[in-house]
Amino acid sequence: MKKYNYVPVIGLEVHIELSTKRKMFCDCSSEHFQIKPNTNVCPICLGLPGALPYPNKEAVKKCIKFGISFNCMINKFSKFDRKHYFYPDLSKGYQISQYDIPFCEGGHWKSSVNSVFRIKRIHLEEDTGKIQHRKIGSEYFSLIDFNRSGVPLMELVTEPDFSNINDVLDFVKDVQLASRYLEVSNADMEKGSMRLEANISLRKEETGKRDQMKRLPDYKVELKNINSFRFLRSALEAEIKRQTDILKMGDKVIQETRGYNEKTHQTYSQRSKEEAKDYRYFPEPDIPPILHQSKEIDIIKTDIPEMPWMKRQRYKKDIGLKDEYTEIFLKDRKRSAYFEQILLLNKNSGLDLSYIADQIVNKNLDLKYQSPQKLLNALSVEKNKTYASSKEIKNAADSVLKENTKAIEDLKNGKIQILGYLIGSIQKKLNGKGNINEIRRYIENALMEN
Ligand code: ADP
Ligand code: ZN
Ligand code: MG
Fold first, then answer.
1. pLDDT in tens, 16-37
2. Could you tell me the distance, in angstroms and rounded to a whole number, from the CA of residue 334 to the centre of ligand 3?
3. In this protein, which residues make up the domain named Aspartyl/Glutamyl-tRNA(Gln) amidotransferase subunit B/E catalytic (predicted)?
4. Best of 199, 254, 274 to mutate for ligand 1, by most ligand atoms within 8 A of CB?
5. Which domains are assigned to the chain?
6. Neighbours of ion ligand 3 (CB under 5 A)
7. What is the pTM of this model?
């Protein structure tokens, strides 16, 4: 049998819970993390018959803002659709989502080495309730909390453009940073406000063609239950290995949804994957289509700050900062703001920026000096300090020792505190520019000699 090399084909789906005050289609508070179950609910988010949903404008704005920052085209005509499936945490029997006309389409993200990864769409939907399986006494119960039901959920879907795991991780980390920079979500993985799914297949290695022109495998496996960046990496590694082994045996990989087990480091089959037709999508009849004018979109554009990938490029190109410092500043907005002030103030100080970055990142000097100007002053003083030469120390020490014969006798007789006095006197003659250790050594040697 002919042996092939296989290349991973990976596409991502990222869910992000928006940090709006209210839920997506009602006025309930969207707070749901660690609070009393079923306290933020109403007929709309409980899915009671006859309740009428109305979209949250703030959530729509946040979704569009997010889409613009990822270079998406914003649909001026958009709508919500019903996506049907049965599960107890979905009380209506369908989820209000967006099917064929999402708010944002066709964007892209560039990695630090400028590889382009296409974003297919970004749409808005509602989150589901949460089921807890509990044993109370000797009986098992499944409990449902609807506080999360109806919380705005944004879903970003990429094209299957990723072929290595590092790019995947860089991307999802930037999605998290972007959510924070844009203040659309805190995107905490542990709290479930950012959730990852990865679709993966393997294709035979072909040379010559551009990645995006290469034929996609006729199957894909969707990985779910990934709740940290670390698990994303190991789930992908495990799944690539599993699929490689199957293909090398000459078998076919089954299209399905798989979970990841953190303990065994393996993926396991959950269910066969449903297709769009299984969901019986149709336009949500209770919510009219959403129209946007260019003007409104332009206003949202003005609200977008410098994004992490832009800052990364600027730090690389304009100031030549080492990547390790850049990445720390990108993640830590407070430090980053401090460093930005340094950049403004440092124009004439002549201090090296990587040196300053090092003093902040490794010595925490930004905590010691609340004001960036004070840090710069301190670093300048440090830099301009010229130390006294050995000859200058010798001269100063000799004259101090000569003037203090009585003190030296006392020192020799064990009055050790005299040493500090002598060092102080010598340092005074040197205007504080002496090295304390060198002075001490000089005195000790001098005493031993006579
Ligand atoms: P579906 O309609 O089945 O949900 P989509 O085309 O919307 O499929 O893609 C869903 C996700 O699967 C996207 O993230 C996409 O990039 C990814 N994907 C599509 N085809 C493949 C493939 N052959 N291998 C890996 N991922 C894929
Ligand atoms: Zn409600
Ligand atoms: Mg979805």
1. 999 999 999 999 999 999 999 9
2. 34
3. 9-295
4. 199
5. 4-301 (no CATH), 308-384 (no CATH), 390-449 (1.10.10.410)
6. 155
7. 0.84
